[in-house]
Design goal:
Layout lengths: L1 E7 L2 E6 L9 E10 L2 H7 L10 E2 L3 E6 L8 E4 L2 E2 L5 H4 L10 E2 L12 E5 L3 E3 L6 H4 L2 H17 L7 E5 L3 H12 L4 E5 L3 H9 L5 E2 L6 E6 L4 H10 E9 L11 H6 L3 E4 L5 H12 L9 E5 L3 H9 L7 E5 L3
Parallel strand pairs: 11-12, 11-14, 12-13, 14-15, 15-16, 17-18
Antiparallel strand pairs: 1-2, 1-4, 3-5, 3-9, 3-18, 5-6, 6-10, 7-8
Helix pairs in contact: 4-5, 4-9
InterPro entries: ADH-like_C, ADH-like_N, GroES-like_sf, NAD(P)-bd_dom_sf, Zn_alcohol_dh
Protein name: Sorbitol dehydrogenase
Organism: Sulfitobacter mediterraneus
Length: 326
């Protein structure tokens, strides 16, 4: 099969790889759409020790079951594989499973390939009237849905629901869409890239700014750098909530003294639960997250060029989707 392989820092190769094989309880998926995630970019830049080269990256995918009794079933893929027997899994917090695995991290290769093997429990059926490129957004949207849900659950019920989302990439935009779907009407995205700001405002209908000092009761950091944590610490209103998604860098920025004195809740959020993933997929299918027409589709063979352009800030679209069969 053809695959896009991370070979070294800022080096990707489009080449032949052994075809994926389905194990017991798994289905072979013919991947039709696979999105580029910020974590893929971190690996590409050599910033993620969990993703050593050589490795097939990619974990935001949708496709069609190839072979077996469910041949032809259109599915979107929850890439998080868990044990299903530990206390975390039993209590519905599968994302905290100590034995969790995610495709695009060893020992599981990723979805920038023509085929992928996944357990049946990780697949959600996609209706015929929903495009698979849109269905592939279930994974990044679920990350943001999970963060928005936790932030709202942590916010005191008497407080005004006003939100700032730091970062206008796919996760940040998805967080804004999720918050609105959950009833938060005042949501502003902070995005420094001028080209992306214009795209978010004109194409996605979002309220967007390059910076802000306006206090907000909900702050979602979809970037995760010291500078964005510093901004989150500054603009979180007393008694507010910061939900931290981004994994840009490990340390710095958080004003622990202000968080303590103003009783600001800080929540680290990682991936999503199985229920969050299913809820997000259903919200996509029902159109509750908008038209989701802000993606840019490219052949997987052009993946190295797409990564390079994303690295240079040349792509305005919040999400690039790669097709292995074009």
């Amino acid at each position: 099969m053809k695959a896009l392989v991370y070979e070294d820092v800022e080096t990707l190769g489009f080449r032949d790889m052994p075809k994926a094989e389905a194990g017991e309880g798994e289905h072979l998926i013919r991947v039709v759409a696979s999105g580029i995630c910020g974590s893929d970019m971190h690996a590409y830049l050599g910033h993620d020790a969990r993703r050593p080269a050589p490795l097939i990256l990619g974990h935001e995918a949708a496709g069609v079951i190839a072979g077996g009794p469910e041949d032809g079933r259109r599915v979107t893929i929850n890439p998080l594989v868990t044990c299903k027997t530990c206390l975390a899994c039993i209590s519905g917090r599968e994302n905290l499973c100590a034995d969790r695995q995610i495709i695009s991290m060893p020992p599981r290769e990723g979805a920038f390939a023509q085929f992928l093997a996944m357990p049946g429990s990780n697949l959600v059926t996609v209706p015929d009237d929903v495009g698979l490129a849109k269905a592939a957004l279930a994974e990044p949207l679920a990350v943001s849905w999970h963060a928005a849900r936790l932030a709202l659950e942590a916010l005191h019920s008497n407080m005004e629901r006003r939100a700032i989302v730091i970062g206008g990439g796919a996760i940040g935009l998805a967080a804004a869409l999720a918050l609105r779907a959950m009833g938060v009407e005042q949501v502003t995205i902070v995005e420094p890239n001028e080209k992306r700001r214009a795209f978010l405002a004109e194409r996605c209908g979002q309220a967007v700014t390059d910076t802000t000092t306006t206090p907000s009761t909900i702050v979602i950091d979809a970037v995760g750098y010291a500078a964005t944590r510093a901004l989150a610490s500054e603009v979180a209103a007393p008694g507010g909530v910061i939900a931290h998604i981004g994994l840009g860098e490990d340390t710095g920025g958080l004003d622990v003294r202000r968080l303590t004195l103003q009783e600001i809740t800080f929540i680290g959020t990682y991936t999503y639960t199985s229920q969050d993933f299913r809820n997000t997929a259903q919200a996509i299918f029902e159109g509750r997250l908008g038209p989701l027409d802000w993606i840019e589709e490219r052949p997987l063979s052009d993946g190295a060029q797409a990564f390079s352009e994303l690295r240079k800030g040349l792509i305005a679209a919040p999400k690039v989707i790669l097709d292995p069969w074009v």
